[in-house]
Amino acid sequence: MPRPRCSRCKRPASHCLCALIPDLPSHTEVLVLQHPDEVDHALNTAHLAVLGLRNATLWVGEVFAALPGWLAQPGYRTCLLFPGEQARSVAAFGSDGDGRPVRLVVPDGTWRKARKLLYLNPALADLPRVTLADAPPSRYRLRKAPMEGSLSTLEAIVAALNLLEAPADYAALLKPFDALIEGQIAAMGEDTFRRNHLP
């Protein structure tokens, strides 16, 4: 029989994270495009990010029919948080402001699945790309990063907002994330964690 789950944070009721999830405003609007394979992942960090941000939305799928209309709405400066040859730093994009609020589109999935989302949604190709230069090291101790500087979706959103919204600080979004990681480590046992996840 499945364990009861919290309907909000999706964690087992005995490990609910809702008390740690903040309620943070932002001028920047965040749209997370989540690959369906991530929805039931035990460490669904994008879901935690959206729960903690008032001005954030999560769309799940592979092809987003509503995306071109959303992108066409006037009054915003929209960018895609994803590396690429022409990508600029988030800070540089933010400092070029002309008074319009920024909308940050964030693909959520493995690198392969995120690239698939970009391929299946050509409207994303027209967006200026931004990346996180000098981002803090990942706190995601349970996953081996495929490349240096890789962050979880939640960590990437926090780092981007800290640059775009300075001096505001979005570190409170990391509290449920840290608790989630600690809970997973406790469940597997310290010895197993050290054997499989420490360098």
From TrEMBL:
<dbReference type="GO" id="GO:0008033">
    <property type="term" value="P:tRNA processing"/>
</dbReference>
<protein>
    <recommendedName>
        <fullName>tRNA-uridine aminocarboxypropyltransferase</fullName>
        <ecNumber>2.5.1.25</ecNumber>
    </recommendedName>
</protein>
<dbReference type="GO" id="GO:0016432">
    <property type="term" value="F:tRNA-uridine aminocarboxypropyltransferase activity"/>
</dbReference>
<keyword id="KW-0808">Transferase</keyword>
<dbReference type="InterPro" id="IPR039262">
    <property type="entry name" value="DTWD2/TAPT"/>
</dbReference>
<keyword id="KW-0949">S-adenosyl-L-methionine</keyword>
<keyword id="KW-0819">tRNA processing</keyword>
<feature type="domain" description="DTW">
    <location>
        <begin position="2"/>
        <end position="189"/>
    </location>
</feature>
<comment type="similarity">
    <text>Belongs to the TDD superfamily. DTWD2 family.</text>
</comment>
<dbReference type="Pfam" id="PF03942">
    <property type="entry name" value="DTW"/>
</dbReference>
<dbReference type="InterPro" id="IPR005636">
    <property type="entry name" value="DTW"/>
</dbReference>
